[in-house]
Design a protein that fits this description.
Blueprint (H helix, E strand, L loop, with lengths): L3 E6 L4 E8 L2 E9 L1 H4 L7 H22 L9 E7 L3 H18 L3 E5 H7 L18 E6 L4 E8 L2 E7 L5 H11 L6 H13 L30 H13 L2 H6 L1 H27 L3 E5 L6 H14 L3 E2 L12 H12 L19
Parallel strand pairs: 1-4, 4-5, 6-9, 9-10
Antiparallel strand pairs: 1-2, 2-3, 6-7, 7-8
Helix pairs in contact: 2-3, 4-11, 5-6, 5-7, 5-9, 6-9, 9-10
Bound molecules: 5'-O-[(R)-(carboxyoxy)(hydroxy)phosphoryl]adenosine and zinc ion (ZN).
Length: about 350
């Protein structure tokens, strides 16, 4: 019998609870705060804390109801303990501790980025997809807070090969959209604007694509790190030089140019990491993997290097969600990796893999 786990994630601006049985997701409730934070152009911490506190109980209740389970059926509680926004993480951790105490259940602490990796292994109620990891696996994790390449030697064994030296890729896309005064979150806005230019096959592209080439960062560096702050500055200067009219007429080109430069380094470093470490599988996860153009580029890498690529197994598993935390927790449950002292579990905003 698979362990039935109630998982909670409040690491950023989504309040989420899920019930899973092994890798099978029975419910995955996500209450997004995007509309609350929109006018600030990013996550406003005090607002996030208040919204998490108001929503956590109804979200947990709904997750149990949709899964047709009660607390009495559960084997364990899982919760994200980092990385993320400290005062947001706190809300989920306090709730998880309270439930573990009240129902006498073991508590499992999960790294949010580990959760993103396991979003590719989550199964639906019918047990699909049936894919497995093969080791070593290479994970490319790209979200609003992280951009990293991780080598996974087994379940629970991670080696960070490279990470961003400054901004995360999703954060940079959010900033680019803000520079263009287009709203938040920026990733989907930039993708939609750039789509007519990016969706054409690369060999049919206009010779001047991208129209506004940005200098790729760390081109000469022999390491697997990323950088986005230089791109953002180049983009800001570029946009400031354009007249209102030019700006209005070239939004599509500007978005496509920024997206191209942002993804070029992801593709380049991922290819280099595959050559260096010869992984058996490429796992791509995090909010930015919602981007269809990026998926296309990574599928090409997978074909060229002849290794399979896995993306999150359903749309609701791409952005922040608790189901991925529950799936990661099912492996820790098998290894009996429980929190030893429930009272002492604390948030770890800068936790790394
Ligand atoms: O993983 P996630 O939901 O939250 C964090 O843990 O950060 O990632 C959020 C990030 C945001 O920066 C957002 O702009 C980006 O993912 N994103 C996208 C797309 N959808 C969301 N980036 C590019 N293309 C998209 N379609
Ligand atoms: Zn995330």
């Amino acid at each position: 019998m698979n362990a039935l786990i109630l998982a909670i994630d409040t690491s950023c601006d989504e309040t989420s609870a899920a019930v899973s049985s092994g890798r099978r997701v029975l419910s995955n409730i996500i209450s997004s705060q995007v509309n609350l934070h929109k006018k600030y152009g990013g996550v406003y911490p005090a607002l996030a804390k208040r919204a998490h506190s108001q929503r956590i109980d109804p979200v947990v209740q709904e997750a149990l109801k949709r899964a047709r389970k009660a607390f009495e059926n559960l084997s364990a509680i899982a919760v994200t303990d980092g990385p993320g926004l400290a005062i947001a993480l706190e809300v989920g951790i306090a709730k998880a501790k309270q439930l573990a105490r009240k129902y006498g259940l073991p508590l499992i602490a999960i790294n949010h980025m580990e959760g993103h990796i396991y979003s590719t292994l989550a199964r639906n109620r019918n047990g699909k997809p049936e894919r497995e990891l093969a080791f070593p696996a290479l994970a490319l994790l790209v979200s609003g807070g992280h951009t990293e390449l991780v080598l996974m030697k087994n379940h629970g064994f991670y080696q960070v090969l490279g990470e961003t030296l400054d901004d995360a890729c999703g954060e940079a896309l959010d900033k680019a959209a803000r520079i263009l005064k287009l709203g938040y979150p920026g990733g989907p806005i930039i993708e939609a604007l750039a789509e007519p230019l990016c969706s054409v096959p690369s060999d049919c592209r206009a010779p001047d694509f991208p129209k506004y080439p940005l200098n790729p960062p760390l081109k000469e560096k022999k390491n697997l790190n990323f950088s986005y702050s230089g791109l953002k500055t180049q983009f800001l200067y570029l946009v400031e030089k354009l007249s209102e009219k030019e700006l209005g007429q070239n939004l599509t080109h500007l978005a496509a140019s920024f997206q191209e430069a942002s993804f070029e380094q992801l593709v380049r470093k991922t290819s280099e990491a595959i050559e260096m470490y010869q992984p058996k599988i490429l796992v791509c996860a995090g909010g930015v993997m919602a981007n269809q153009y990026l998926r296309k580029l990574l599928r090409r890498v997978s074909r060229e290097k002849q290794i399979p690529v896995y993306f999150p197994s359903a749309p609701r598993l791409i952005g922040d969600n608790a189901a991925m935390i529950g799936v990661a927790a099912s492996y820790k449950y098998q290894r009996k990796e429980f929190v030893k002292n429930i009272e002492a579990l604390d948030r770890k905003p800068r936790l790394s893999l």
